[in-house]
């Protein structure tokens, strides 16, 4: 019933009560002219919707007492009263005016209501309007409202309330980073030791200790070796005799075999005198990793007196899980962040994937070479390593949030326009950078839903279930 009609009934009842109550209801003609004029004025006069005859087809039937009970066909209350027919002309528009108060543009005829479904998605339908246990109205399902198979329509207002967002599926090259822990290690090729190849006595050690940085050619120690001294004397004799063109001949080779540094041999040749102790110098720039030499000690052949390392280039050894090894290739770029150097980022490339897997951890080591010009990277520092995987080939991709993954199937919601959405099962591929590769089911340029996907998917599943329950023969 229209709002105007309900208001008119209330006003009539008030006027009737004020002019005689029950007697007025039984003996209407006895009302005074003033009372009838007052009633017509309050109800809108003879031209009001109530005063005019109802026209148009019957839309539905309502309870005579105004309670929220409706019927698609003529019906009666429990006490035997007939339901009131509501005609098309009695409908009221949203601005409060009767539907026939002013000419309106021609619109399509209203679609008949087939049935009403539960607002909470339960498998319950009704042939007439009703409310559920919480007082929520059942939702009408009109003829032709089940558009294409598997498609659901969502009103614009509901899209805004649920926060539906969409994006265009596009061609992208996926880069999938693998983040693993690692540590800084010395470049094995840049480590050297200082040792003798004969018995020797250490006569002096330079003022360098473990951890000190040294330069190439800097003196480390002086030692006396009887065997080296004898070879040096023989070398000078051969030089004096002009042996092998004045180069020292076999004596020079003997000194080299004893590990005498080239600069010590050159000094011997220049001074033509065997010194009481030979000076050993650093063969590279770097740091002192180990100092074992002590003044006055005797060193046996092979004893390590100093251990030196060049740290201008270092390695980062990262532990990559076995299941991620297939995505990593030598030469792939890697980003290294040192935990003790916040804010500093070092760029390098994969130099080697070690050909073994540690059985206890099921990881394999990956080596990354880094330049260290500032000597900030020190051995055994902890690092976080991001290794880029994937190739440069572009593929159809959508955002991670667009894919509904149940574990056995993956679904994407396509936005068809005009509030229509269609769930589409897809085959996914690689992931990375917040995107997922779609190998089948979606083409570049398709618009997909990235937010509220589960709500639309639930609505679609509900509609499919209801359609299955209410076949044309079983529709109320």
TrEMBL record:
<dbReference type="InterPro" id="IPR006143">
    <property type="entry name" value="RND_pump_MFP"/>
</dbReference>
<dbReference type="InterPro" id="IPR051909">
    <property type="entry name" value="MFP_Cation_Efflux"/>
</dbReference>
<protein>
    <submittedName>
        <fullName>Efflux RND transporter periplasmic adaptor subunit</fullName>
    </submittedName>
</protein>
<feature type="domain" description="CusB-like barrel-sandwich hybrid">
    <location>
        <begin position="191"/>
        <end position="309"/>
    </location>
</feature>
<dbReference type="InterPro" id="IPR058792">
    <property type="entry name" value="Beta-barrel_RND_2"/>
</dbReference>
<comment type="similarity">
    <text>Belongs to the membrane fusion protein (MFP) (TC 8.A.1) family.</text>
</comment>
<feature type="domain" description="CusB-like beta-barrel">
    <location>
        <begin position="313"/>
        <end position="389"/>
    </location>
</feature>
<feature type="domain" description="CzcB-like C-terminal circularly permuted SH3-like">
    <location>
        <begin position="396"/>
        <end position="456"/>
    </location>
</feature>
<dbReference type="InterPro" id="IPR058649">
    <property type="entry name" value="CzcB_C"/>
</dbReference>
<dbReference type="Pfam" id="PF25954">
    <property type="entry name" value="Beta-barrel_RND_2"/>
</dbReference>
<dbReference type="Pfam" id="PF25919">
    <property type="entry name" value="BSH_CusB"/>
</dbReference>
<keyword id="KW-0813">Transport</keyword>
<dbReference type="Pfam" id="PF25975">
    <property type="entry name" value="CzcB_C"/>
</dbReference>
<dbReference type="InterPro" id="IPR058790">
    <property type="entry name" value="BSH_CusB"/>
</dbReference>
């Amino acid at each position: 019933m229209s709002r105007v009609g309900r208001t008119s009934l209330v006003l009539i009842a008030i006027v009737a009560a004020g002019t005689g109550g029950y007697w007025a209801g039984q003996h209407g003609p006895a009302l005074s002219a003033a009372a009838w004029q007052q009633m017509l004025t309050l109800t809108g006069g003879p031209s009001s919707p109530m005063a005019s005859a109802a026209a148009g087809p019957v839309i539905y039937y309502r309870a005579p007492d105004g309670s929220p009970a409706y019927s698609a066909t003529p019906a009666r209350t429990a006490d035997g009263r007939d339901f009131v027919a509501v005609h098309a002309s009695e409908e009221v528009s949203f601005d409060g005016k009767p539907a026939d108060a002013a000419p309106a543009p021609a619109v399509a005829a209203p679609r008949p209501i087939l049935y009403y479904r539960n607002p909470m998605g339960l498998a319950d339908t009704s042939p007439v309007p009703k409310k559920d246990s919480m007082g929520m109205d059942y939702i009408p399902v009109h003829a032709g409202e089940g558009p294409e198979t598997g498609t659901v329509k969502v009103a614009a207002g509901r899209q805004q309330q649920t926060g539906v967002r969409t994006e265009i599926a596009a061609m992208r090259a996926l880069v999938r980073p693998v983040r693993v822990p690692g540590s800084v290690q010395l470049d094995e090729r840049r480590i050297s030791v200082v040792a003798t190849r004969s018995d020797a006595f250490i006569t002096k050690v330079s003022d360098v200790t473990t951890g000190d940085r040294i330069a190439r050619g800097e003196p480390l120690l002086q030692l006396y070796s009887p065997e080296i001294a004898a070879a040096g004397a023989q070398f000078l004799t051969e030089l004096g005799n002009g042996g092998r063109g004045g180069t020292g001949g076999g004596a020079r080779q003997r000194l080299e075999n004893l590990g005498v540094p080239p600069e010590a041999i050159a000094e011997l040749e220049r001074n033509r005198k065997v010194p009481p102790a030979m000076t050993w110098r650093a063969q590279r720039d770097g740091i002192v990793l180990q100092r074992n030499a002590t003044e006055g000690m005797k060193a046996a052949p092979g004893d390590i007196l100093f251990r030196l390392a060049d740290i201008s280039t270092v390695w980062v050894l990262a532990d990559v899980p076995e299941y991620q090894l297939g995505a990593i290739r030598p030469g792939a770029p890697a980003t290294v962040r040192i935990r003790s150097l916040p804010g500093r980022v070092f760029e390098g490339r994969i130099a080697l994937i070690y050909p073994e897997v540690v059985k206890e951890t099921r990881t394999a080591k990956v080596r990354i070479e880094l330049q260290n010009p500032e000597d900030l990277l020190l051995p055994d520092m902890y690092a976080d390593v991001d290794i880029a995987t994937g190739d440069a080939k572009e593929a159809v991709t959508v955002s991670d949030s667009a894919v509904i993954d149940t574990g056995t199937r993956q679904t994407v919601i396509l936005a068809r326009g005009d509030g229509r959405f269609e769930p589409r099962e897809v085959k996914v591929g690689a992931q990375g950078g917040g995107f997922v590769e779609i190998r089948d089911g979606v083409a570049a340029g398709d618009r997909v839903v990235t937010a509220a996907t589960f709500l639309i998917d639930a609505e679609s599943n509900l509609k499919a279930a209801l359609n299955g329950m209410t076949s044309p023969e079983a529709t109320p």
